[in-house]
Amino acid sequence: MTPLHRLLNVTELGHGTTPLLLIHGFGCDQTVWHRLIPSLENDYRLVLVDLAGFGGAAPESYDSRRHTTPVGHAEDIAALCDELQLENAMMLGHSIGGTIGLLASILRPRAFRKLGLVCSSARYLDDPPDYRGGYTYEQLDGLMKLMEQNYLDWAGTISRVALGDAITDDSQRNLQQGFMEVSPDILRPLAKSIFLGDTRHQLPHVTVPSVIIQTARDAIVPIEAAQYLQANLFKSELVVLDTGGHYPQMTAPDILIDALRTRFTALGSGHR
């Protein structure tokens, strides 16, 4: 049987002893972190992964029953922690990658010392009057229909919206191309599960300290959703970056690195 770290195209870099597991978000792969690597590799043992169905993950790693929801991917991350014997690792997850890391920490709490959540959300759908996820059902339904009817237009639209005022021609082209490289049969059901799903009920089960890192102007995740995470996660802290867009690791790596250096290592490492 092929080891999971090979199936998920795990890449290990760096010269440090503290493991830092990097989990990419929806429609991306591990290359989304490349602008951060030069600033992290001296301090950490970097563990980069491609989630099943994405990037260089082996085709046989994808299970259409398990990987249409974040839970299936979180089970993979938990199993990967076992295989790599990760203990007291740091985790940095972007968007749904942060949620996957949270869920994995519930399954393997001792594998993690601290969780870094970059532009992550527990729910994208508004739940008035007390919760603002950023989208109405009609808006999300429209995005899902566009994804089904014209995948190319959807990829162009979502990449422009996600990059927001941090957009450049290169970043928009790279992000759109990344979406286009993932099979619609993989991305569509996962998109539905993510955008219409709700993981708020899981937050009380997280026992690992968290740093929530949110850009000031993110059209995908409003600041209220980040504040909700901070209010409902154990030993959590919210850091707002003075930049826009949903992908600061691509568009503002220096700002993100500064936040990681000053706040990501600032919390205690104990478990409840």
Protein described:
- This protein is of the alpha/beta class and 272 residues long.
- It has helices spanning 4-7, 37-40, 70-84, 96-107, 137-149, 151-163, 169-180, 184-196, 223-232, 248-251, 253-264, and strands at 11-13, 18-23, 44-49, 89-94, 112-118, 210-217, 236-244.
- A 7-stranded mixed β-sheet has the order 1-3-2-4-5-6-7, sandwiched between helices.
- Residues 267-272 have low confidence and may be disordered.
Gross geometry? globular
**Helix-strand string:** HEEHEHEHEHHHHEHEHH
> Biggest sheet, in brief?
7 strands, mixed
Average pLDDT score: 95
Strand tally is: 7
Strand order in space, largest sheet: 1-3-2-4-5-6-7
User: What is the overall number of helices?
Assistant: 11
Q: Radius of gyration, rounded?
A: 17 Å
Give the tags.
disordered C terminus; seven-stranded mixed beta sheet; globular; 272 residues; 11 helices
Give the SSE layout.
Blueprint (H helix, E strand, L loop, with lengths): L3 H4 L3 E3 L4 E6 L13 H4 L3 E6 L20 H15 L4 E6 L1 H12 L4 E7 L18 H13 L1 H13 L5 H12 L3 H13 L13 E8 L5 H10 L3 E9 L3 H4 L1 H12 L8
Parallel strand pairs: 2-3, 2-4, 4-5, 5-6, 6-7
Antiparallel strand pairs: 1-3
In short:
This protein is α/β, with parallel strands linked by helices.
